[in-house]
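>> received
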Amino acid sequence: LIDLVHGGRTKCRIRFLPSIRFDRATDRKVVTREAAAAIRAAFRVEIMERVREDRSAYVLSGRQVV
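>> returned
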């Protein structure tokens, strides 16, 4: 993102995906795969709906750094 900001005007749109619940016993690799699949699916839907518009960044938490 820093390169985009230095390159000129930047518009950033963020969409929150549904949370994935897990606890200490949850396999982190499984959660990571689920998150990646959710992001891929949302991205594909957006590409199909908006061919030439700005794209969103997808995050699962307000504390997650993009």
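>> Residues 42 and 58 are 8 Å apart (CA to CA).
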